[in-house]
Amino acid sequence: MAVVTDQVEATGPEVDDDAVGPESAGEGAGTAPLRSVVTVWALVAALVAVLALLGVKGTDLYQAKQDEKRNSEVLDVTREVVAGLVSLDYRRSKADLDRIKSVATGSFQQQFEQLATSFEQVLSSGEVLSTGSVKEAGIITADDDAAQVLAAVSSIVKNTEAPDGQQRVYRMKVDLTAADHAWKVSNVEFVS
């Protein structure tokens, strides 16, 4: 029988007597679960970092859209007011001046109200017809409370002294202030 045992041992798998299995209390015991925990925490940290980055980029994108909307509103009001200042008709001067007053505030509003009556008389006595347009307008500075815009304007002015009309070109610096969810003009300067 000893022969059979030797044959079974000889044909079976070889076993290294020095090898230490996971069931023994050796050095490598428990490293597989530790690696799993580290991997999970690394994935969680990466996910948090990606979500934070997306949040920051989303906020930046939202702010950029808000700035774009604000700038568009600022330019629209500037074009309206500046075109209104150079597009006047003595036959409807009160309506023209009231339209400008409706988007005025601060010192511009005060000056305009003080001069409106005499300005209306000048338009009427000179039979002034002026048609103008904004050729270009660009924002110098803008935030959520105030803006400053430079506008290039041209107009054709007809009156009793120039019945065929004269072309005039202006550059205006316009200050705007946010008030009651709308932009109002607080100052207008003619610049050279």
Automatic annotation (TrEMBL):
Q: Where is this region: Disordered?
A: 1-30
The subcellular location is:
Membrane
Superkingdom classification of source? Bacteria
Record keywords, A-Z: Membrane, Transmembrane, Transmembrane helix
| Principal location | membrane
| Gene Ontology CC entries for this record | membrane
Q: Does the keyword Membrane apply?
A: yes
Q: Which residues cross the membrane?
A: 38-56
Protein name per UniProt: Mce-associated membrane protein
Which species? Gordonia polyisoprenivorans
